[in-house]
Design goal:
The chain has about 140 residues and is mostly helical. The chain has one domain. It has five helices and no strands. Helix 1 packs parallel to helix 3. The longest helix has about 35 residues. The chain starts with a helix and ends with a helix. The protein binds protoporphyrin IX containing FE (HEM). Protoporphyrin IX containing FE binds next to helix 1, helix 2, helix 3 and helix 5. The site of protoporphyrin IX containing FE has 19 residues, from helix 1, helix 2, helix 3 and helix 5.
Length: about 140
C-alpha cells in the first residue's frame, strides 16, 4: 500500500469535496433570489451569469475531481468488507443526482422558463446539507 499516494488522494479528495459542496449549497440559494427577479431585468441577467459560472467553473470540475480521487481511494478498500462505504456511495449517488437537478433548474432559469417557487428552492437548499452530514459521519466514524 503506497501510503504517500493514499494521503495525497485523500487530501485532493477533501479539497474537491469542499469546492463541490460550496457550489451545491450556494446555487439553490441563488435560485431563491432568481425566482423573485423579473425575467429580462438586470438582476435576472446577472443571476444567470453567476449561476452559469458557478456550475461550469466550480461545481462541474469539483464533482469530477471528487469522483476521480474518491475512486482512486477505493483501491485501498475492499468494497465487500466495508458496509459503511456502500451506504456512503449510496448517499453520494443521491448527491450527484441533486447536482444534475441543479443543472436542469439552471437551464430553466437561463431560458426564463423556471416553474418552481422560492419556497421550493429553500427546501431544496437543505438537501445537500443533510446528505453531506450523513456522508461525512459515515466515512469518518465508519459505524458499520
Ligand atoms: C464521489 C464518490 C466518492 C467516493 C468513491 C469516495 C470514496 C472515499 C474513500 C474510499 C475514502 C477513504 C476513507 C478512509 O481513508 O478512511 C474517502 C474519504 C473521505 N471522503 Fe469520500 N468519496 C466520495 C465522495 C465524497 C463526498 C461527496 C464527500 C462529502 C460530502 C466525501 C467526504 C469524504 C471525507 C471527509 C473523507 C476523509 C475521511 C477521513 O479521513 O477519515 N466523499 N472517500
Amino acid at each position: 500500500m503506497d501510503i504517500g499516494l493514499y494521503h495525497w488522494l485523500k487530501a485532493l479528495h477533501i479539497i474537491a469535496v469542499v469546492a463541490w459542496m460550496a457550489g451545491l449549497l450556494y446555487l439553490p440559494r441563488l435560485f431563491v433570489y432568481h425566482v423573485n427577479a423579473t425575467a429580462g431585468s438586470e438582476a435576472s441577467e446577472m443571476l444567470k451569469v453567476m449561476e452559469r459560472r458557478l456550475m461550469r467553473f466550480i461545481m462541474l470540475p469539483a464533482s469530477i475531481a471528487t469522483w476521480v480521487f474518491g475512486l482512486g481511494l477505493l483501491h485501498y478498500f475492499s468494497l465487500a468488507e466495508e458496509p459503511w462505504l456502500h451506504s456512503k456511495l449510496g448517499l453520494v449517488l443521491v448527491l450527484t443526482g441533486f447536482h444534475h437537478f441543479c443543472a436542469r433548474w439552471r437551464k430553466d432559469f437561463a431560458r426564463d422558463a423556471n416553474r418552481h417557487t422560492a419556497k421550493f428552492f429553500r427546501i431544496m437548499n437543505e438537501v445537500p446539507t443533510l446528505l453531506m452530514v450523513g456522508i461525512v459521519l459515515l466515512v469518518v466514524l465508519k459505524p458499520f
